[in-house]
């Protein structure tokens, strides 16, 4: 099942809190009407979901969806964050899930939960994980909970922004994990383009770094990265150009450092890739 594209998501926080529970406290068996993040700060918990039993240690998080039986329980005394949300909703205003949570029997666990995916430009259809360890998330959960509890003006929009940041960090982690395994065969070429994007790398040079024939290298690169070596190199140059623009370097210096033949050609390629001229990008970042 697909939750939509990362570019069009309008997620909404429905409920968020930080809590503590004694050992052997259970929530469920049940189904929830939305999605839930359950992040363990201290102690240890356990999730029964999708016909699997998953331990959740401190610093780890689980994510599960609607209408599939689940049971959360603490193994030891535990401190945790719990956040309920929807991937897409017109309004950012919370809709408390409590009255739509339903009790189920253990017999209902016989059916498997669906696998959910999210669409990513370039990378395609990416599976959403049920369990993960992403340290950066611990800084976002308390900010979401503070907004939910204080209900200051505009809090629903702030929560939506924080949730979008959380989702982006999580899915970036998923992609990094996936690409680290897939990209091993072409890692020397990727490393060269990341470290020296200013160099006019040819397919032959990059293929030689990896020990492949250029035709096979190009095919392998496109299968694993979703784009050609040329397009990947351009994207790395634009990343470096953005850093230089925000660092205050002149357009002539940037074009020279990235070995463009002219400022005009650099500006043309920058706008083609980003949708903004270098000057417009610098103004937005100032």
Automatic annotation (TrEMBL):
Domain (HTH araC/xylS-type) spans 187-284
Q: Which Gene3D superfamilies match?
A: Homeodomain-like (1.10.10.60), Jelly Rolls (2.60.120.10)
Q: Which PROSITE patterns match?
A: HTH_ARAC_FAMILY_2
Give the highest taxon in the source lineage.
Bacteria
Keywords, comma-separated and alphabetical: DNA-binding, Transcription, Transcription regulation
SUPFAM superfamilies annotated for this entry?
Homeodomain-like, Regulatory protein AraC
**PANTHER family attached to this UniProt entry:** ARAC-FAMILY TRANSCRIPTIONAL REGULATOR, HTH-TYPE TRANSCRIPTIONAL REGULATOR EXSA
Q: What is this protein called?
A: AraC family transcriptional regulator
Q: Which organism is it from?
A: Paenibacillus agricola
């Amino acid at each position: 099942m697909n939750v939509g594209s990362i570019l069009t998501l309008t997620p909404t926080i429905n409920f968020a809190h930080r809590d503590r529970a004694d050992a052997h406290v259970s929530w469920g068996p049940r189904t929830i009407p939305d999605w839930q993040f359950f992040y363990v700060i201290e102690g240890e918990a356990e999730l029964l979901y999708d016909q699997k039993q998953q331990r959740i240690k401190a610093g780890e998080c689980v994510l599960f969806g609607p209408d599939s039986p689940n049971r959360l329980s603490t193994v030891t005394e535990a401190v945790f964050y719990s956040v309920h949300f929807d991937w897409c909703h017109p309004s950012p205003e919370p809709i408390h899930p409590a009255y739509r949570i339903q009790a189920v029997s253990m017999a209902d666990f016989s059916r498997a939960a669906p696998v959910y995916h999210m669409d990513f430009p370039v990378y395609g259809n990416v599976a959403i994980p049920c369990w993960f360890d992403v340290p950066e998330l611990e800084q976002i959960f308390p900010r979401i909970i503070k907004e939910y509890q204080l209900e200051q003006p505009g809090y629903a929009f702030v929560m939506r922004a924080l949730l979008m940041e959380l989702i982006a960090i999580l899915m970036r982690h998923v992609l990094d994990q996936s690409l680290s395994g897939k990209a091993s065969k072409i890692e020397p070429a990727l490393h060269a383009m990341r470290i020296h994007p200013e160099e006019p790398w040819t397919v032959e040079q990059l293929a030689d770094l990896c020990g492949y024939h250029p035709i096979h290298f190009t095919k392998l690169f496109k299968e694993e990265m979703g784009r050609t070596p040329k397009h990947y190199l351009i994207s790395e140059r634009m990343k470096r150009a953005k850093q230089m623009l925000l660092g205050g370097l002149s357009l002539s210096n940037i074009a020279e450092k990235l070995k463009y033949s002219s400022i005009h050609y650099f500006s043309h390629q920058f706008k083609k890739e980003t949708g903004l001229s270098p000057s417009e990008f610098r103004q937005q970042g100032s």
